Structure formats: structure tokens, C-alpha cells
Amino acid sequence: MTIWLTQAEADALLAMEKHRVDEQRWSLPDMGGGIVVPLVSADGDEAFHIDISRGRINLAKGKIQNRARTTMVLARIDFGGPPHRNPDDEEIACPHVHLYREGYGDRWAFPISPEVFTQPTDHWQTLVDFMRFCNVTRPPEFDRGLFT
């Protein structure tokens, strides 16, 4: 049984200020890798995660997502992959952003906004822009490694 958030709850969680939980320095994933970075709301009442993963063969492919309440994907950006087909059969080119939609979870994708995602082929800048989009005001520390 899936437990859905209301749209108002999801929107409030996405807009909520998020902070790193500690001073750990994270290594961004290489080929086929992924990391899960914990975050917390400014008041400490809500836990969040930023998931970052890279393709195994195609390093241009990956995703960055923001989850709340362990399993609820609030937002995700997919890059370097195939287009996405929405429940209404509309096809959205990649890169695209998925946003939580009540009753559908993260199954709806939207074209990225160039005002929000300023350099979608630069994975580091996409991560920075995504964290800003998700209101991560005290971001975790990262070693960029090969994440370019």
C-alpha cells in the first residue's frame, strides 16, 4: 500500500530549508556509483536525503533526487538518458526534472528551466542548481572527483 503526501505537504517539504547533518566530506560517485547524503530541516523535525547516482557505461547519464520521509521523492533531475513518457503520454526530453504530484509520486517529468538549471551539461553545476532548487541552504561538502 502506497501512502501519498498531499500536494500541499509535498510542496511545503520541497520549500523547507534543508541543512547538512554534519561536516562529513562526500566523494561524488564515479561510473555506476551512487551516494545517499542525509539532510535535516532547519528546525530538526524533518529528515531528507539527496541521492546522487551515475550511469555504469554512459558517464553522462545520472540522476540527483531529493527525498523526504525516507521514500517520498520530492524532486529529481535526470540527465544524459532517454526521454520520459508522462502518465498522459506526453514525452519529455532529457534532461528533465521530476516533481512530486499527488496520486502519482514522481512519475511526472517537466522540461528543465534554464533560469534554474543554468548549465545542464555540467554535472557539478547541475548539483549546485538542484540543491538551490530544493532549498538546501547549508549544503554538504563534496569532493568533486570525476563528477564534471
Automatic annotation (TrEMBL):
**Pfam families hit by this protein:** DUF6978
Q: Quote the protein name from its UniProt record.
A: Prophage protein
Native source organism of the sequence: Gluconacetobacter asukensis
